[in-house]
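User: Could you check the structure of this?
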Amino acid sequence: MPYPDPEFGGIHARALFLLDSPGPRAKLETGGSGLLSIDNDDPSAARAHTAYRTFRIDRGLCLHWNVCPFPTAKDQSSTSERTRAARYTRELLDLLPRLELVTLLGRAAEDGWRRADIRQNHLVVLDGPHPSNRGINAVAGNAERFQSTMRAVAVHLAQPPRLSGNRPAAHSQDAADGR
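Assistant: Sure, the predicted structure tokens are below.
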């Protein structure tokens, strides 16, 4: 399982980018970096890297993660893999006390987020196309939509941080159990 890029915000992140599953350039066993990073040598990372630079998004305020963080049977995660992985998304959110914004990149990320059943009204949730060639080329206008989503992230992060305090549990069942 790839690790988050240490040049990013980690537990101090205000913005979380959720994608589908680790690509080959993130996996050590396929010759990748072992990191979920916009510096990886693949089109998705390159597109995200360009957007960070274009919109002056501070890496130290962000974290990239996958709704299915473990290796998947195919290039894209299946619905059953995303269901199995939902708990990891909930657990991740519990580690991010400053989180204000979640950006779901691609349909699999949107589906994984729904399956995680996140109940945190204080979060701003954006969605956009996956930055891969497949995601950008799937529908006319997706390149512009990706840019618009990244611009919205930059605008949000340019604002002063929201006050963080006692946040509700990430999942409705956790709240019911008193966790």
